[in-house]
Amino acid sequence: MLTTFYIKTYGCAMNIADSNTIRNLLTSYSLQESSDWKSADLIILLTCSIRQQAEDKVAGWGIKANEEIFEDKIVILTGCMAQRYNRSSNSTIDKYEKLLQKRFPWITHLINIKDINQLPKILGIDNNDLIENPNINFDRNNKYQGLFSISHGCNNFCSYCIVPYTRGKLFHIPKEEILKDIKDFISNGGKLVTLLGQNVNSWEDDGDNIVDLLKEISNIKGKFWINFISSHPKDFSDELIELITTNEKLLKHCHIAAQSGSNRILRLMNRGYTKDRFLNICKKIKTSCPDFRITTDVIVGFPSETEDDFNDSISLIKECRVEMVYIGKFSPRESSVAYDMNDDVEFNVKKDREEVIRKLVNKVREKKHKEWIGKALPVLVISKNKGITYYNHEVLLEKEYKEGSIQNIKIIGYSRSGLVGI
Ligand code: SF4
Questions:
Q1: Can 4-129 and 252-370 be said to share one CATH topology?
Q2: Which of 97, 168, 298, 413 could anchor a disulfide with 420, C-beta 3.0 to 4.6 Å?
Q3: Of the residues 198, 199, 256, 298, which should be mutated to test ligand 1's pocket, given the most ligand atoms within 8 Å of the CB?
Q4: Measured CA distances, 277 to 124, 228, 262, 281, 292 (Å)
C-alpha cells in the first residue's frame, strides 16, 4: 500500500506549479509527502527537456540514487521529457522512447502531465481514500504564495524551442476558473498571487485579455500582491504597461524574455519582435516607474551569432538595466527548427559570452542593490526570516515579523541573490 511520496522538480515555474497540482492530488488521497526520497513509496520526477543538460540531470539523479534502491518503489516520470516520449507516432520520438528506456530502466510509469489527474487511478488508489476534492491550482502547503497556471502549451514555435512539441498547443484556462481558485486562496490567507504561463501575457478568454484578468484579480477584496511570469515581448501592450506601473497590487517586477538583442538572430529565432520593440517596452516602464525591476532570458551562441550580434544583446541588457538574467547556451533540441541549423558557435565562445553577460548583470544588480540601502521597502513576510519585496527580491530579515504580514522594512545590505532587511 502506498503511504508516502516524494517529488523532485526540475525546470521552470510551470513545473513547480505542476508539482503543486500533484502534491494536492496525492495529499487529497491521504498520502503523506516525504522530504527524503529514500523513505518514500512513490517517487515523482517532474522533468524538463528544454536543454540536453536538463535531461542529463535526471540521469545523474538516477545514478546517484542507485537502481537497486528503486526496486520496491514506484517511480513516475512526468513533465516535458515524458511528453516527448508520449508522441510515439513520430519516428524521432520512437528513437527517444528507446533512449529513455535505456537511460532510465528504473522508471515504472511515464505519464503525460495533461493526464496527471489519472494518477490515483493509475496507482490503484481507491476513491474511498479521497479526503477532499483536490484543488489542483495552488499549493496548500504554501499558505501565502500561490502559483496559478493560466495557460498551458505554446503556439509560437520559436526555432530553438521544443515546448510547442512537448507541452502542445496553447490552451487558456477560463477566467471564471482562475478567479474562483484565486478567491479561494485569498480567503484562506493567501498574499501573493503568481500567474503562470509560457507566455502568460498572451492569455485570453472570450474577449478578455491579460489586462482585463489582472484588473479583475486586483479588484478582489483584501491586502495581497500579484505578479505574472513569463512575458513575451510581442504581446506586451501599452495597456499592460500602464496597469503594471500604476496598479498598487501588482508587483513592480516583470520577467520579459528577450532571448537576443540582434534583429537578425531574433528573426532566425522566429521571435516576432525587434530589439527596438523590446527597448521601447522597457523605456515606457522605466519612465513611468524608474525603480521597476526588469529580468529576462538570453540565449548565447545561437547558430551564426557573431560578436556584433552578441554586442546587441549586451547593449539591450545595459539599456534596460536588467537586474537578473537566465542565460542559456544554445543547444540543439531534436524536433525544433534550429536542430537543423549549423551549431557553429564553439562551446568556449558560448561559455565566454555567458560569462560576459553574467558579470555585466551582476554589476547592474549590485549598483541597484546599493541604492536600496537605507531605504524602506514594502515586504511580504513569508517565514520568520524571509520575505519578498514589492520589487520581487528575496529579502533576508534580521528581525522576526509576523508571517503573512506586509511590513515596511529598512534595507541594510544585500547578498548575491537578494537584499537584507531589518
Ligand atoms: S514562446 Fe517560444 S520559447 Fe517560449 S515556449 Fe513558446 S516556443 Fe518556446
A1: no
A2: 413
A3: 198
A4: 52, 20, 12, 6, 18
Q: Residue of the nearest CA to atom 8 in ligand 1?
A: 161
pTM of the model: 0.82
- Integer Rg of the chain from CA: 22
Superfamily of domain 4-129: Methylthiotransferase, N-terminal domain (3.40.50.12160)
CATH number of 137-250: 3.30.750.210
Amino acid type, 326? Y
**Would the CB of 156 count as within 6 Å of ligand 1?**
yes
Composition of the chain by helix, strand, coil, percent to 5 = 40, 25, 35
Task: Measure the CA–CA gap between 313 and 324, rounded to whole angstroms.
Answer: 14
Q: Which atom of ligand 1 is nearest to the CA of 232?
A: 1
CB-count exposure of residue 332 (10 Å: 0-12, 13-18, 19+): middle
- Judge if the beta carbon of residue 232 lies within 6 A of ligand 1: yes
Ligand 1 midpoint to CA 289 (Å): 28
Taking the CA of residue 230 as reference, the ligand 1 atom at the shortest distance is: 4
- Establish whether residue 161 lines the binding site of ligand 1, counting it when its CB lies within 6 angstroms of any ligand atom: yes
Query: Is the CB–ligand 1 distance for residue 125 below 6 Å?
Result: no
- What length is written for the chain? 422
| Ligand 1 center to 31 CA (angstroms) | 35
User: Is CATH 3.40.50.300 the classification given to domain 252-370?
Assistant: no
Per domain, the residue ranges of the chain are 4-129, 137-250, 252-370, 376-421
- The tens place of each residue's pLDDT in the chain, 422 residues long, gives 788 999 988 877 777 878 888 888 888 888 889 888 888 889 998 887 666 666 677 777 766 666 566 677 888 888 877 666 554 444 444 555 666 777 777 778 778 777 777 888 888 876 665 555 555 555 555 689 888 889 988 899 999 998 888 777 888 999 999 999 899 999 989 999 999 988 999 999 999 999 999 999 999 999 999 999 999 999 999 999 999 999 999 999 999 999 999 999 999 999 999 999 999 999 999 999 999 999 999 999 999 999 999 999 999 999 999 999 999 999 988 788 999 999 999 999 999 999 999 999 999 999 999 999 999 999 999 988 899 999 999 999 999 999 999 999 999 999 887 999 99
